[in-house]
Design brief:
The protein is of the alpha/beta class. The protein folds into 2 domains: about 240 residues, 3-Layer(aba) Sandwich (Aspartate Aminotransferase, domain 2); about 120 residues, Aspartate Aminotransferase, domain 1 (Alpha-Beta Complex). It is about 40% helix and about 15% strand. The chain has 12 helices and 15 strands. The strands form 4 sheets. The chain has a 7-stranded mixed beta sheet, with helices on both faces. A hairpin with a 2-residue loop joins strand 6 and strand 7. It starts with 7 loop residues before the first helix and ends with a helix.
């Protein structure tokens, strides 16, 4: 049996009848940027999340850039995030000209460690903190927000992988922070190209975001502030509006698959990441830890099961970010995770038979 890591063609085939009319509607209307589809999606996404405003933009990377920019973060400011995130988190921060400072993670959850953050805050003037809800599991927002407030930093969370994740009974995005989203095609809520959004409960931030994404215009050809071009196009917005209707259903399926992995994979060579009480992952990825990762991946590949690594190289050891001044050993927890994590197939259209097969193969690995 062949089990792919993901299968967007399978996904499209199931929802083609819903998606194609939405695309046709945009084409026939003849309005492709900042139109009715985008406005309606912004309202619908804000309502789904449980906040007041959503502002669409070009990508998740640009969502982080715009969110920081809207909060006044710029050159010389200090922004803290984690080393085991995907590079776009840091790319978005870097676009502001701010200095990136990295904070190690909890080895059990792979999420920002509040104790490590506290140590950084005690030694540095930090302007913003960007925790990452990695793999779809919410970071400890209560503790992180408390630290941010105590030290005068703004908290802006990276929810690129956290669509429909829940923290203490409320969806991510409903906690009152400025939250950044990606709608890259493989996300739990994915467009058919790049796309992103920022959600917020603050009307002033929302208005500033609308201007920043559109050249700083308050109205057409009247530019109040410097801005950029980062807009969610109408076709992507129309697709996202259709797919949002199915998101809860897809999340339930992902959680069911994750529960089967957790309860039926009993191989001691495979260790699971911990989910703290009060947290409900949306299971964007299902990452496990395997010390003999290369051997495990080869074993699974030989049996037709595609696994991927999220992520093999921490930020501070990437060639592009040597200028941050860190070295190997500076973030031992993140580094250990990057050496061991491997993601099993996880998407809503996985069949029960495919899940059975992944579990059987994982249990057969000798370690």
């Amino acid at each position: 049996m062949k089990v792919p890591f993901g299968d967007l063609a399978r996904h499209f085939a199931l929802y083609r009848g819903n998606i194609e009319p939405a695309i046709r509607r945009v084409l026939e209307r003849g309005w492709f940027v900042l139109g009715e589809e985008g406005k309606e999606f912004e309202k619908e996404w804000a309502a789904f999340v449980g906040t007041d405003y959503a502002v669409g933009c070009g990508s998740g990377t640009e969502a982080i850039h715009l969110a920081l920019w809207a909060h006044g973060i710029g050159p010389g400011d200090v922004v803290v995030t984690v080393p085991n995130t995907c590079v776009p988190t840091v790319a978005g921060i870097s676009l502001t000209g701010a200095k990136v400072v990295l904070c190690d993670v909890d080895p059990e959850t792979a999420l920002m460690d509040p104790e490590c953050l506290k140590a950084i805050l005690e030694k540095n003037k930090v302007h913003a903190i960007v925790p990452v809800h990695l793999y779809g599991t919410p970071a400890d927002l209560s503790r992180l927000a408390g630290l941010a407030a105590s030290y005068g930093a703004v908290l802006i969370d990276d929810a690129a992988q956290a669509h429909d994740a829940v923290y203490r009974g409320r969806r991510i995005g409903a906690q009152g922070f400025t939250t950044c989203w990606s709608f890259y095609p493989s996300k739990n809520l994915g467009a058919f190209g790049d796309g992103g959004a920022v959600t917020t409960a603050n009307p002033e931030i929302a208005e500033r975001l609308r201007m920043l994404r559109n050249y700083g215009q308050e109205k057409r050809y009247y530019h109040k502030i410097p801005g950029t071009n980062s807009r969610l196009d109408e076709i992507q917005a129309a697709i996202l509006r259709v797919k949002l209707n199915f998101l809860e259903q897809w999340t339930a399926r992902r959680r069911a698959i994750a529960l089967r992995y957790r309860t039926e994979i009993r191989n001691p060579a495979i260790r699971f990441l911990v989910q703290r009480p009060g947290v409900e992952s949306c299971c964007h990825l299902f990452a496990v830890r395997v010390k003999e990762r290369a051997a495990f991946m080869k074993f699974m590949e030989e049996r037709g099961v595609e696994c991927l690594i999220h992520y093999p190289v921490p930020i501070h050891l990437q060639e592009a970010y040597r200028s941050l001044g860190y070295k190997k050993g500076d973030f031992p927890c993140a580094e250990a995770l990057c050496e061991e994590v491997v993601s099993l197939p996880m998407f809503p259209e996985l069949t029960d038979e495919e899940v059975d097969y992944v579990i059987a193969c994982a249990n057969a690995f000798a370690g």
